[in-house]
Design a protein that fits this description.
Layout (H helix, E strand, L loop, with lengths): L2 H12 L5 E10 L11 E2 L1 E14 L5 E5 L4 E5 L20 H12 L7 E7 L9 H17 L5 H16 L6 H8 L4 E6 L5 E5 L4 E7 L8 H19 L13 H7 L5 H25 L3 H17 L6 H11 L4 E7 L6 E7 L3 H16 L4 E5 L6 E2 L1
Parallel strand pairs: 4-6
Antiparallel strand pairs: 1-3, 1-13, 2-7, 3-6, 4-5, 7-8, 9-11, 9-12, 10-11
The structure holds adenosine-5'-diphosphate and magnesium ion.
Length: 389
């Protein structure tokens, strides 16, 4: 699965060689969970699993896009974008909302999106928390930039991808996923300020592996819990404003002020907002540990994050706790925590690369004997963001 297979699928489908190939990665988030919607700091890294797109300008005015992983194609042009239909009148398949949404967002920004022949395929697992959707969006945004002859920065393309996902696909996501896919750097984590969108690359030594362990639990109806948490944060800001009139979000509350005022909050709101305030503090702290190459201490911040998500934010489940506890006892593991919204999904583990093979085997066996479930485990490294190959 790489650029060669994108090329050969393109030739099979269109009968000629593609003009360009792009690779756009998925991502993991190392620290900073449930803080993006509080104007906080997050710490994602792009990974070495990616979407590949092979493409050429089309001689027609329709884009013909083939999703190799679904063995389906969609044909659409600008005229059909608003109705989410194909040129033959049939509805766009769900996966095609991502490329069509990117086309829509680019057009809204006044950018040209020439018709293309394209095939794309990916080894980012779908719906597992590694942001396959953002990798697809960043692949298409760069593809249209390549054909359109305009230039936007990676961060600007990320914002356009987010707009596509929010307003065309209809998924209420933050900027982190597209940001990491667009702006990633090999052997670096990216500390992103979700308020100012400023970011800094921090070193992740090559000797360390980013291991993602999927509990295989998929909870439906978690959007209620998610909205609930967001509301708790907003509610807390309203209450704290009586004492701290200058704050706009939990980002603006120092730990000292929070500790001083915690008693004035209802207990549930105190737990929720303490997680956010302390988690933003942990991401801040992580800069100096990563700059110093101190993975031990950085890993401890990940472990603390898990406890906070479990006990204060209350978004863990027994399977996530089991995966984390087993991992933390294994050799070579610096830190482990649940990642993503919670209630299922994955854990992220920072593991000495030399130990990663044994780590994966022991974690899989330990988790299976505790839960009866066989986990999916992905050993990744921090990689570059979306690029023309
Ligand atoms: P994730 O956490 O992986 O981003 P999402 O639910 O946000 O999960 O996005 C998954 C959706 O993105 C898929 O259902 C599909 O519509 C689209 N997608 C992702 N990868 C591919 C792919 N390889 N081919 C076609 N569509 C894809
Ligand atoms: Mg997604």
């Amino acid at each position: 699965m790489d650029m060669n297979s994108a090329t050969s699928h393109f030739k099979d489908r269109f009968g000629y060689s593609p003009a360009h190939i792009i690779r756009a990665p998925g991502r993991v988030n190392l620290l900073g969970e449930h803080v993006d919607y509080n104007d906080g700091l997050v710490l994602p890294a792009a990974i070495d699993r990616a979407t590949y797109i092979a493409f050429s300008p089309s001689s027609t005015n329709h884009s013909t896009i083939m999703a190799v992983d679904f063995d389906q194609q969609a044909v659409f042009s600008l005229e059909e974008l608003s109705t989410k239909t194909q040129s033959n009148g049939s509805p766009l398949p769900e996966w095609a909302h991502y490329p069509a949404g990117v086309m829509w967002a680019l057009r809204e920004a006044g950018l040209t999106t020439p018709a293309m022949d394209a095939v794309f395929l990916s080894n980012v697992p779908r719906g597992s928390g590694l942001s396959s959707s953002a990798s697809v969006e960043m692949a298409f945004a760069l593809a249209w930039q390549t054909l359109g002859g305009w230039t936007r920065s990676p961060l600007e393309r990320a914002l356009l991808g987010q707009k596509a996902e929010n307003h065309y696909v209809g998924v209420h996501c933050g900027i982190m996923d597209q940001f990491a896919s667009a702006c990633g750097e090999a052997n670096k984590a990216l500390m992103l300020d979700c308020r100012s969108l400023e970011y800094r690359a921090l070193p992740l030594p090559e000797s360390v592996a980013l291991v993602v362990a999927d509990t295989t639990i998929r909870r439906k109806l978690t959007s209620g819990e998610y909205n609930n948490r967001r509301n708790a944060c907003e509610e807390t800001v309203k209450l704290l404003k009586e004492h701290l009139p200058g704050i706009a979000s939990l980002r603006d509350v120092s730990l000292e002020d929070f500790d001083r005022l915690a008693d004035t909050l209802p207990p549930e709101l105190e737990r929720r907002s303490r997680h956010v305030v302390e988690e933003i503090g942990r991401v801040n702290q992580s800069q100096s540990w990563l700059d110093a190459g101190d993975l031990q201490r950085f890993g401890q911040l990940m472990n603390q994050c898990h406890i906070s998500l479990r006990d204060l934010y209350e978004v863990s489940i027994p399977e996530l706790d089991a995966m984390v506890e087993i991992a933390q006892d294994l050799r070579g593991c610096y830190g482990a925590r649940l990642t993503g919204a919670g209630f299922g999904g994955c854990t992220i583990n920072l593991v000495e690369r030399e130990q990663a093979g044994e780590f994966v085997e022991r974690l899989a066996n330990g988790y299976e004997s505790k839960t009866g479930l066989r986990p999916e485990i992905y050993v990744c490294r921090a990689s570059d963001g979306a690029r023309l190959l």
